[in-house]
Amino acid sequence: MRLVLTPWLFDLPPWRRYDGFATHRAIFLRRADVSDDLITHELCHVWQMQHRPLAMPLSYLRTGYDRSPYERQAREAARRTAG
Q1: Which contacts of 53-59 are long-range, i.e. CB under 8 A and separated by 24 or more positions?
Q2: How many other C-beta atoms can be found within 10 angstroms of the C-beta atom of residue 83?
Q3: What is the mean pLDDT of the chain?
Q4: Hey, which of 21, 23, 42, 57 would disulfide with 27, CB 3.0 to 4.6 Å?
């Protein structure tokens, strides 16, 4: 798993509202000083992408970001592991 600092990525319109973005092999971060909760959230997305590589990203088209079951699962993972 790679953590990649890419502040320029988050200047692009699709990612402006986020601080992290996950693929099946890497987590891209806006800045280095992110919370453990964000890393947990994005690690959950990595696992989701590895196990549901089509269903996970397509869920955002079907349900939208806020109502995606994958987004809810990642939020719950961060909540359960919060300090």
Answers
A1: 53/24
A2: 5
A3: 95
A4: 42
Q: Report helix angle 36-51 to 55-63, nearest 10.
A: 110
pLDDT tens digits for 46-57? 999 999 999 999
Closest alpha carbon to 77 in 55, 46, 32, 56: 46
SS3 47: helix
Orientation of helix 55-63 relative to helix 69-81, angle to 10°: 110
CA-based nearest residue to 73, from 42, 44, 49: 44
> What are the E-state strand segments in the chain?
2-5, 20-22, 26-29
Burial 42-62 (b: 16+ CB within 10 A, else e): bbbbbbbbeeeeeebeebeee
Q: pTM for this one?
A: 0.92
* Domain count across the chain: 1
